[in-house]
């Protein structure tokens, strides 16, 4: 259900281009209205889409529009409650809801698989800062669901030996330290992009090393540039 005017016709391309939607995606449109955004996912980007609409009459209209558009094999409309229906399998979530509904949905969205892409027309999600915000052709916000990485991790495989990684986190914004032996240092340029964690650190000889790891629940696995500039495999476990 939309609140206020329907999203502009050029909103769908904008939000889907932000999220880089493609034919491998499953898009869930929360509060799908007449179905135009879900339909665009299939017609313009080749994705599968499911729209969830609370208003029964609007849901019926959306389904008729799906049928008329010739995308019924890839688009489904559910007459349901966005706070009850399960959309955890989405790779992309789109929304045009009031700010308070966005914020109420935020805990559910943050529990989704890291890397899930989220777009919202007109309204943000409170203190969860968007990864990208655009004002033209219409206002839209884009987020990537971050992995939960806060805490301490033991890292193995580095030339320096046993290493402790300590991370703090506020949504996708992270900081922390790396302890090598008895020496601790702040992480340089730490980034969290969905389930990908990266940072740079200085070795004992003050040479810079870049680290990139994939986060899988309580495990990390990735590569770092050694002194010889080779890519060495490293792993980590949450303490």
UniProtKB/TrEMBL annotation:
- List all membrane-crossing ranges: none
Q: Name one GO biological process term.
A: methylation
- MF terms in GO: protein-lysine N-methyltransferase activity
Q: What are the UniProt keywords, alphabetically?
A: Methyltransferase, S-adenosyl-L-methionine, Transferase
Domain named Methyltransferase is located at: 27-92
User: What's the superkingdom here?
Assistant: Bacteria
Q: Which Pfam families match?
A: Methyltransf_25
Which CDD domains does this entry report, sorted A to Z? AdoMet_MTases
Iron as a keyword of this entry, yes or no, is no
Q: What is this protein called?
A: Methyltransferase domain-containing protein
